[in-house]
Structure formats: C-alpha cells, structure tokens
Amino acid sequence: MKITIYKIYSIFIFFETQELEKDVCKTFILFMERSLRI
C-alpha cells in the first residue's frame, strides 16, 4: 500500500516539476489524502 502511495507522490512531483496543469496536481493531492485515510 505504501509503495503505491509513493509512486503516486513521485508522479505528483513530476507534474509539479514540469509545471503542467495545476488542477491535475491538486487532483493527485486529493487522491493521495483519501488513500492515506483508508
């Protein structure tokens, strides 16, 4: 479970670094928070 979260987090960092759509980054953050709660 933690490995999946780390993968998602790394993808989020990639998007943030590339400065692509910030809405996508926010979606990743929300998805991460929900995953952590579960």
Outline of this structure?
The chain has 38 residues and is mostly helical. The chain has helices spanning 2-18, 22-37. Helix 1 (2-18) packs antiparallel against helix 2.
Description:
Helix content is 87%, strand content 0%. It has helices at 2-18, 22-37. The model has no long low-confidence stretch (mean pLDDT 73). The longest helix has 17 residues, at 2-18. It has one domain (2-37). The termini are close together. It is mainly α. It is flat, with a radius of gyration of 10 Å. The chain is built from two helices and no strands. Helix 1 (2-18) runs antiparallel to helix 2 (22-37).
Question: Which descriptors would you attach to this protein?
Answer:
single chain; 38 residues; 2 helices; mainly alpha; flat
CA radius of gyration is 10 Å
Quickly give the structural class.
mainly alpha
How far apart the termini lie comes to 10 Å
- How much is the average pLDDT? 73
The share of residues in extended strands comes to under 5%
Could you state the order of secondary-structure elements as H and E?
A: HH
Q: How many strands in all?
A: 0
Instruction: Describe the main β-sheet briefly.
Output: none
Number of domains: 1
Runs in which pLDDT lies below 50 for 5 or more consecutive residues are none
Number of helices: 2
Shape: flat
- Residues in helices, as a percent range: over 70%
